[in-house]
Write a structure and sequence with these properties.
single chain; alpha+beta; six-stranded mixed β-sheet; five-stranded antiparallel β-sheet; 20% helix
Amino acid sequence: MFFKAFIFLLLFQAQLCYGQQAASVWYDTDNGLPQNSVKDIIKDKYGFIWLSTENGLVRYDGYNFVTYNHLNLKNNRFSVFLGNIEKDSIYNFTAYTENTVLLNKRNVSILNHQNNYVKRALHESKLYGLFVKNGTHEKTDHKDFFVYFDTRDSYHLFKNGTIRYNDKTTVPIKELDEHYTAHTFCLGHTIFIISRTLQKIIRISSGKVDYLDSSEIFFRDNVKVYWSQINNQCFILHDNILYKVSYQNNRISLKKMFHYDLNENSLVSVYHDEINNKVYLGTLSDGLDVVKFNNFHVANRSDKSYENIFYSVLPFEKDKVITSSGDVYNENGLVKQYHFTTTNKYFLFYDSHKNILVQNGTSLVRFFRDSDYSKNESLNFTKTRPYVLNIHPYHVMVFHLPSLHSELIFYKDSDFKNPFLQFTIPNIATTIQELGYHQWLVGTRDALYVIEAPSFSPKKISAAPLHVREITKSKDGNLWITTQGDGLFLYQNGRLIKMPEDKNGYLLFSHTILEDKKGFFWISTNNGLFKILKDNLLQYAKDRKALPNYYRYSKEDGFTTNEFNGGSSPTAAVLPNGNFVFPSIKGLVFFDPEKIRSYYPKNFFLERVVFYDSKSSIKERKINLENNFYKAVILVDVPYYANRANLVIDAKLKGCKNENWERVGSDGKYYIANLEPGYYQLIVRVLASPEGKYIYKTININVKYLFHQTLIFKFFVVLLLTMIVFTLFKIRIKRQEQKKRELEKIIEIRTQKLSKAVLKLEYTKEQLRKESVQQKKLLETISHDIITPIKYLSITAQKLYETDEHDRYIQKKYFESFYTSSVEFYNFVKTLKEYAEIYNISEKNEIYNIYEVVETKKALFEVAAKEQNTRIINNIKDPTYSKNNQNVIAVIIHNLIDNAVKNTTNGIIELSTDEDSSTFFLEVKDTGKGMSREQMTYYEKLQDNIENEKLVLQKYSLGLHLILQLLMMINGKIEFKNNTPKGTVVSIKIKKYD
């Protein structure tokens, strides 16, 4: 269970130890307990309070009750605690000792392995009652008991009065009461028995007996003893007064705790938490009562609320205060009345002779100390009612003018006769404080002003409207300003520095400040009394990140109201005995600031989580949350038994978007929701001192990933996408490479074609160039060589024309010459015609039979050869195929046969061929007159440089020139040699056509 509510808050005054007041809070099944029988109470080493009930064990941290009754036990009816708190080994038995549980590390578990202590306790419990506490309402007269301290120190208490030590020695006891066990208790390893018969307390230690004198209260009738061995505490209850028993210096003594109207038949267990100054009372059927002692004392005049409203007070004597009406109070209430005549309860002050001055109308009334304040005098003023602000060593008379201005008149003594300074200030002046020599800080209802010489003109230093309550000068000389609605300010080095507010904004309406010996400020407000270390405020003035932590006292700490009063002079008092007194609307609050504790946690724990699903879990210091968890509540367990409004818990979740510190509520619940999958670290800190020191603890949080949210999955997805992209990229690259190869192939093919075309074009160009050159040479030769025949024909024709027509001999001679020249010119022209036509023959690559070409040419020249008695023999094998240009070959063969026929008489002309893998050979032999060496040299030289040599057609055969030109076209060569016995052998070598 995680809740706490008050049934009621009972404040009462009583005779208490150290004069303390107490507040009582009850708990039962309506507000936290599983059952109303609280049989035993302890506090473990971690600071948690444990309760033993009839329906489970209960852990209490000052706010939450956590019940342990789901441990699969045979029953949840627990009894008493035993064991050792410091060793964190606390045990409890269920009814009939059916189960034993262990309290260890703030948790409850079934004890599976029994140590020697438990074994001994269980063994003895079968025969005897375990004597570990009393105060129960079970009848014990018929029982024998076993007391166990350690293995070397144990006792048996028999109902017949016999006491046995360590199972051996019998301890001699005189005159034991019949019901002595009900009045027996132990402190440490010593047994004490209250003997009303002897009026002594019997002490048994290490088997030895002696008798002690003690308070007569022990021996009264109806004394009830409440003792717990594990707590080492003992109490007695008599006449509704609870006493605590102590044993020191071999003496037993009693301290009165409180007088309380409690049904003693109901009380079964008592525990005093000395650290937190609380007493826990467990009852049989009414639940748990927690009594808190307070060091605040509230003094009232009467039971009438309107008479208990207080304003200004002055210290009076050592431990008292006096009001403007002359009432004297100590911490217990009204002690004396002087009946001052006054019309203003907002101020009073002492003069230099400890006389008291109050206001009565427009006058001041001075009550003389020497007359025990029975005599007085009046100081009359013609202006409005005076209000005196006592600023040691000056007295400042304030007159509130109708125009909402204030006139301030300064006096060095309380005779109010010779003012030394006077000035007017806007609005109603409320407070004044000396700032320096001839410098004053004045507060009004709307601003803060500085007044300084020589002009003494008010200079406003607060930009915004500021309702100043009081200006207080601390021991270090700093000036602190309390306001009505604007909070607390520090005036330092000409700057007005606003202090941070408390979390509820109560300090906005602050009244006055008192500084104690340890440097703490005590600030009264409209809602509680605040305590803050002055150095923390000064540190904030230097560093705005160093936030101070305010400690607030409220009704829970002993006040009858949270509303204190201010706006008076003086607003609070420091007594000679060191006590502080603050007026409130329900009494005067007295306290010693050195005795008022500020409670801070010593430790806290992060080990409990409330899940809203079945799969989330916590193990050791790690919280595992499901992916779709709704929310989780991390419980910050803080053993804290003071006002939890002063408990400061901050948390920061590392790993999320917002990693700022967040304030956790006083219930200690930190909520987690809507977290993305991942790993987080929760850092929790708890304020552990007024100086601002924190205790830090961390817990890891893992929000599970779904498979598709895991890093491995994302890695594989990224890897897969990378592989896909890489594959696509690779495929694209391959396609690009393939396209590139195809394109390169196409380019290569086209380049090859283009290269071939270029080569062909270059070849054609070269051929055309060569043809052009040859044709040019031919034209030059023709132009040169044709002149002579034409000129000769022209001369012959002219002579023939001039010859006498009767001179036939001359005519015949000229006609013969003309005929010869004409035939020669005809042959010349005919050769030129063949030469010109050869360049118009297109290149052909068809396969043809050379034998047939030779036969055709043979038939052409066979008649001419017969006239010269010459035979033409074709020795070429039929068929002999060639792919060389047929027209070129035919012209070459034609010219070779023509030359051979012309130069051969009564002879033979033979044509033959041969070939190898790369060359075709054509050979023409004749037995004619042959060629001279000069001719052969000419043609061989011409063949090597045919482009540059000039053709000499008259001297050499035009046919051979033509052959050389054609051979150049088909990359052929011609060779000449003499035939045997006569004639010429012409050999033609032509490269085969691929």
